[in-house]
Amino acid sequence: MDTNIWDVNVELMIECSDHFHVVRSAREAIECLTKRAPETKGSHCAGARKACLAALEGTSTQKEARAAFETAAEEAGILRRSQIG
């Protein structure tokens, strides 16, 4: 089993609310932060990148990386919230 895959995926709204992108790992999150993040990056973007790099290096957990990435995505206004409940 790949321990680098997150327990919970992070879904992002890209370009419009009808198109979603699923991020499953710290590696995918770094790619997304680099290539898909809005041009005006919020204060949490750098922290998310740092947390994801630390998770890839094994000095932090995947759970911490996912949480930091989710916070950055929420700040950027691209986090898709679940419609369940």
Automatic annotation (TrEMBL):
One Pfam family linked to the record: DUF982
InterPro entries: DUF982 (IPR010385)
Gene3D superfamilies (UniProt xref): 6.10.250.730
Highest taxon of the lineage: Bacteria
Identification of the protein by name: DUF982 domain-containing protein
